[in-house]
TrEMBL record:
Residues 24-183 form the Glycosyltransferase subfamily 4-like N-terminal domain. The lineage of its organism: Bacteria, Pseudomonadati, Myxococcota, Myxococcia, Myxococcales. PANTHER family: BLL3647 PROTEIN (PTHR12526:SF636), GLYCOSYLTRANSFERASE (PTHR12526). It comes from the Bacteria. Keywords: Transferase. This is Glycosyltransferase. One of its GO terms (molecular function) is glycosyltransferase activity.
Length: 384
C-alpha cells in the first residue's frame, strides 16, 4: 500500500479485471501483467466469460480464481440478462469500486452490471472493430459511451473513438501495450522448442499471425516473395501461426512457385527464439490494433516491415525502426524487402533502434504506472 494511503488509513481499491477467457492471446497476456505489476494498494479480483485456457495456470499461480459469467451461446437470449444481474449482485457483495473490461463480449456483461451495482467501469478498446458487423459495432459503441473512461492501446483507435463514435477526447486515454523484456530475453535463451527448416544460409523473414481471417493478408507476403523470386532473389519465409486458411495459403504458395522457400510452422511456443534467427520481420495486415507480434519482433532486435494501419505507426517510424508500406500492396512489400536485403548494415541499425524503443517506451513498468494512475483518478478522483 502507498505510504500516503497507510497514513490516511485508506482501504485498498477494489478492482476487477474482466476478460473473455485465458486462452493464449495478447489481451490475456496484458491482463496477467497488470495483475502481476499493480501495487498492494489494490484488492484485485478477476472475472471471465469462460473459465478456461492454457494461461489459467499462470492466473492460479498469482492467487486468483476467476468468477465466471458464461454467455452460453448467442447473446440474444435471457441468459445474457441473467449474467448481468448475477454480476451486479457479485460486484455489490464484494464492494467493487472499479471494473476494467478488455473485450467486446465481456463488455456486454460488465458495463450494465457495473452501472446497476454503482461501480465505475473502464472499457478497453484494443482494435479497430474490423471484425465486427454493423450491428455489433453499434452496440459496442453504445456500451463504450456508457463507460466512465476508455483505454485505447493505439493512437489510431483513439481517433476512431473520438471522430467516428463521438466520444469526448477527455474520456479516452492511450496506453500502449507493455512487454517484459527480461522474460522475453529468457525465452530467447531457452532456444528453439523444435527444429526449423534449413535455409542454407539464405535470408529469412518471419511472419507471426493466425490464419483465421483474411485481415492478416498472408497472401500479400506470398505475392511479394514471388516477385522477389522472379527477380532472382531467394528469400525464405517462416510463417508462424495456424488456422482454417492455412490449406489455401499453402496451395497459393505452390501456385506462385515459392513453396520451397515458404515454411508453414503452424503454432509455436518459441517465437522469441525464431525471431532471433531471422533477418527481418513482417506484418502485412489491412487492419490492426497494437500488435504484440510487431512488439516481439522489435524486442528481438529485428527491423520490421509493417503496413500503415492501426497501431503499427505507433511502433515503427519509417526508415528508423523499420519500414512502412501501404496495405494490400505486394509490390511495395517486395521493394521494402529488397531495401532490407540490399543494406544489411542499415537494417541492423533499425533493429537496434527498435529494441531501444521497446525498452524505453513499452516497458511493463510504464504500462502498470499509467494504469495505476488512471484507476486512481477514475475510481477515486485522485492522481498518483
Amino acid at each position: 500500500m502507498r505510504r500516503e494511503e497507510v497514513r490516511m488509513g485508506r482501504e485498498p481499491l477494489r478492482l476487477v479485471q474482466f476478460t473473455r477467457s485465458f486462452h493464449i492471446g495478447g489481451t490475456e497476456v496484458q491482463v496477467l501483467e497488470l495483475l502481476r505489476g499493480l501495487p498492494p494498494s489494490y484488492r484485485l479480483q478477476v472475472s471471465v466469460l469462460e473459465d478456461a485456457g492454457p494461461l489459467m495456470g499462470s492466473l492460479w499461480k498469482l492467487g486468483h480464481a476467476p468468477e465466471a459469467f458464461p454467455l452460453k451461446g448467442s447473446v440474444a437470449q435471457p441468459n445474457t440478462l441473467y449474467q448481468v444481474y448475477r454480476m451486479a449482485r457479485w460486484l455489490r457483495a464484494h464492494r467493487v469500486e472499479l471494473v476494467h473490461v478488455h473485450d467486446f463480449y465481456s463488455t456486454l456483461i460488465a458495463v450494465p452490471a457495473a452501472k446497476l451495482a454503482g461501480a465505475k467501469v473502464i472499457v478497453g478498446r484494443l482494435d479497430l472493430s474490423h471484425w465486427q458487423g454493423r450491428a455489433r459495432r453499434a452496440v459496442h459503441a453504445q456500451l463504450t459511451r456508457m463507460a466512465d473512461h476508455v483505454i485505447a492501446n493505439a493512437e489510431a483507435i483513439r481517433r476512431m473513438l473520438v471522430e467516428e463514435e463521438g466520444l469526448p477526447a477527455t474520456r479516452v486515454s492511450v496506453i500502449h501495450n507493455g512487454l517484459d523484456l527480461q522474460r522475453f530475453d529468457a525465452r530467447v535463451r531457452e532456444g528453439l522448442k523444435g527444429p526449423l527448416p534449413d535455409t542454407n544460409g539464405a535470408p529469412v523473414v518471419v511472419h507471426v499471425a493466425n490464419m483465421n481471417h483474411p485481415v492478416k493478408r498472408q497472401e500479400d507476403l506470398l505475392l511479394a516473395l514471388a516477385m522477389l523470386r522472379h527477380g532472382g532473389t531467394r528469400l525464405h519465409a517462416y510463417l508462424v501461426g495456424d488456422g482454417p486458411r492455412r490449406p489455401e495459403l499453402e496451395k497459393l504458395a505452390g501456385e506462385l512457385g515459392v513453396a520451397d522457400t515458404v515454411h508453414f510452422l503452424r503454432h509455436r511456443t518459441d517465437v522469441p527464439a525464431i525471431y532471433k534467427r531471422a533477418t527481418f520481420g513482417v506484418l502485412c495486415s489491412n487492419a490492426e490494433g497494437m500488435s504484440n507480434a510487431v512488439m516481439e519482433g522489435m524486442a528481438a532486435g529485428l527491423p520490421m516491415v509493417v503496413t500503415r494501419v492501426g497501431g503499427n505507426p505507433d511502433l515503427i517510424r519509417d526508415g528508423e525502426r523499420g519500414l512502412i508500406v501501404r496495405p494490400e500492396q505486394p509490390a511495395q512489400l517486395a521493394q521494402a524487402f529488397t531495401q532490407m536485403l540490399s543494406n544489411p548494415e542499415k537494417a541492423r541499425a533499425m533493429g537496434r533502434a527498435a529494441r531501444e524503443f521497446v525498452a524505453r517506451e513499452l516497458s511493463l513498468e510504464k504500462l502498470v504506472r499509467q494504469h495505476d494512475a488512471l484507476y486512481q483518478r477514475v475510481a477515486r478522483g485522485s492522481g498518483t
